[in-house]
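We modelled each protein-ligand pair independently. The example shown here corresponds to the LZUJQKHR entry; the chain sequence is given first, followed by the ligand as SMILES.
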Amino acid sequence: MKIALLGYGRMGKTIEKLATERGHTVVKTIDQNDDYDFNEADVAIDFSVPDAAVNNISACLKAGVPVVSGTTGWLAKYEDMVSLCKKNNGAFIYASNFSVGVNIFFELNKQLAKMMQHLKDYNVSMTEVHHIHKLDAPSGTAITLAEGILDHSHNTDWVLDKEETDKITIKAEREGEVPGTHTIKYESQVDEITIEHKAHNRNGFALGAIIAAEWLRDKTGVYSMKDVLNLS
Ligand SMILES: NC(=O)C1=CN([C@@H]2O[C@H](COP(=O)(O)OP(=O)(O)OC[C@H]3O[C@@H](n4cnc5c(N)ncnc54)[C@H](O)[C@@H]3O)[C@@H](O)[C@H]2O)C=CC1
Ligand SMILES: O=C(O)C1=N[C@H](C(=O)O)C[C@H](O)C1
């Protein structure tokens, strides 16, 4: 598979290494420029910066190149990208987190939220810890987790780094080179239940994005990692 990489930072470089090991070829790298000649790529993978994601994804869709995006912090424009994909009969997957482990954790989180939904003695909160270079807060993964809880909760929204009645507090911590840790806690007067996903490195995110690209390259439509991994 010929891959164009949009964003050649920590994730772009990890994807290049793992994709090459899987027999793929990176035919184009776009980093801090808008030279959108995709060099006959079969698929594009975007791990760039929040401000660049919409332009990058749009350029791929307009050029007819299937695009996998893991960039976080731009989701206010997600529906615009869905419309553009449909208009161009293109192919697009966004995931706040491509790792298989986190996608299992997303399902576990929803199951736990269902079980806890009528237990009013428990207060739910979340902590995400990432490296000091991260531009957005809370993490895209934390937002997906919060949405999974809100579907089965009396809480009406999430709030960042503060406490409000009927809202899920997400605490965002930035420490050293932490790849990404997400913890969800249900706490009552008598006990607490905690579930946690801890990434040991970036390989899981990168491999998941490559698997998504392999899956997407011959398709049209808008998909999620749930489709790729066939999770019910
Ligand atoms: N969905 C997932 O599984 C994961 C998502 N991420 C997200 O991916 C994004 C990238 O993460 P990292 O690689 O750690 O960041 P990074 O800062 O190491 O790399 C971003 C790269 O994008 C480049 N860039 C800036 N403007 C650009 C433009 N207009 N077009 C193309 N590239 C441009 C920068 O020069 C930099 O090399 C972040 O939004 C992060 O939150 C990170 C890990 C996993
Ligand atoms: O910026 C990162 O590094 C990560 N970003 C993603 C997010 O915002 O959820 C995924 C992962 O946690 C690493």
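The two ends are 28 Å apart (CA to CA).
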